[in-house]
Amino acid sequence: MENLISLVNRLQRACTALGDHGDESALPTLWDALPSIAVVGGQSSGKSSVLESVVGKDFLPRGSGIVTRRPLVLQLHRIDEGREYAEFGHLPRKKFTDFAAVRKEISDETDRETGRSKQISTVPIYLSIYSPNVVNLTLIDLPGLTKVAVDGQPESIVMDIENMVRSYIEKPNCIILAISPANQDLATSDAIKISREVDPKGERTFGVLTKIDLMDKGTDAVDILEGKAYKLQFPWIGVVNRSQQDINKNVDMIAARRREREYFAQTPEYKHLAHRMGSEHLGKVLSKHLEAVIKSRIPGLQSLINKTIIELESELSRLGKPIATDAGGKLYMIMEICRIFDGIFKEHLDGVRPGGDKIYNVFDNQLPAALKRLQFDKHLAMENVRKLITEADGYQPHLIAPEQGYRRLIETALITIKGPAEAAVDAVHGILKELVHKSISETVELKQYPSLRVEVGNAAVESLDRMKEESKKATLQLVEMENSYLTVDFFRKLPQDVEKGGNPTHSIFDRYNDSYLRRIGSTVLAYVNMVCGSLRNSIPKSIVYCQVREAKRSLLDHFFAELGKKEAKQLGKLLDEDPAIMQRRVSLAKRLELYRAAQAEIDSVAWSK
């Protein structure tokens, strides 16, 4: 079972190394889920002496007033043999074999955080002690509760300490070690008072009675130790610490433990309780209870770890990859993000995502409707036909058929098709721009780099603008081609004037009678409608070829070419991620590392049912 406490110790060390102190609400915390034992007591309750007795070493700072001004997370590791030593979390590679140096380092590290004032700090100090004389155990020594601020301390320090202590002991995974001196009324015990507030049934509180040997003559602590004065779920444990004279004389801790055993065994009032008294018994009881609590929490801990790993991985995935440091890495990263955007854009065009169908709507509805609105029949009304035929003949009336008149009528009709053709080009251009913006907003990777997002958007729109101009040129050329060469077969089938009743001897104005002009208008309308039908099919092909196809093939080609010319500094400006997001990713990655390590640690430990 000792491997369970070792497991939690390893997890706590991992928490320490990766910055999980249980005080960051923005990140999931493993520290708060781990069972621990918090040592609570008023000033001068003998709290430090109890800890030193459990450890078997004199290592804590001493003095008047508030000596413990930061939480001390004390991890005890039992070793089979070898010299005792200590390690601090902030000095991981330094071993302390002189415990007087440990005491000094605790004081120095406290001062580094709080200055040489008498202020307190919630930032813990992490200390591991390796010794054959300890049980595997983790204890958190908290500042002593006080009722009055001393010189140099703010009035709020009384509440500050109480709030700090409460923040630890109110957690359901925390076992409370409540230290009370026997030579004071238990009703006034700071430790019992605050423990009762967070654990009213005493289900996770261990009562420790100190200074039993200093009680007034004729009094004893039997009622308390037997649970009659104040009942807890677990039996009270009495301890006899070293006296100040013993401390001054540097009395060996092992000798002090022996004298403690002798005191309870030889004092008549406590003889019947001697088997469950003393600091050695306290250490064993706490270790055994901690093991039991850990064992009961393991399944829930596993579930929490697995669930949190999924959540952390999901958030890291949303935040995207961290920025590369070298120019090549930055360039590759930018191009990969651009390819993702380009892929999303193509999916819109290919129907995998919505939006591409709007282009077909331009060809199937908008263009035909615009061509229909041209109303060629009005253009070829009697008076307009007469006017254009007459103007085309000039001073020399036509001899057989008014060829120039036909050409002019056809050209003036066909030229109006340019309007709907240009409108179709512009409509498709608008849809492509809309799909670019939509694709940018759907590219999660671009959201973390505002500058790159703007550059990619601008580059894509610039490409579309170039493609639009090419498309407009090609589409209008289709109309001009129809104007530049009329279909010969159409004119060969035209009837001659004589056959239609024309009389060359009549004046030019007589020859252009209404019936004759109507036939010309009807013939031109048929030809224009034939050409319009052909252009209705060829204009979409030109637009797709010049705009849609090119957008799929080379939307960011120009941007990529320019990108290759940029230096690392310029590339870095494109990857201008929000510093808060960068810090969040680092924090999440550390926390994920912690949870994965915890998962591996738990999986490697086998425990009995």
TrEMBL record:
It holds the Pfam family GED. Residues 517-609 form the GED domain. SUPFAM superfamilies: P-loop containing nucleoside triphosphate hydrolases. It comes from Rehmannia glutinosa (Chinese foxglove). SMART domains: DYNc (SM00053), GED (SM00302). This is Dynamin-related protein 5A. Residues 31-299 form the Dynamin-type G domain. Transmembrane segments: none annotated. PROSITE patterns: G_DYNAMIN_1 (PS00410), G_DYNAMIN_2 (PS51718), GED (PS51388). Keywords: GTP-binding, Motor protein, Nucleotide-binding. Belongs to the TRAFAC class dynamin-like GTPase superfamily. Dynamin/Fzo/YdjA family. Coiled coil: none annotated.
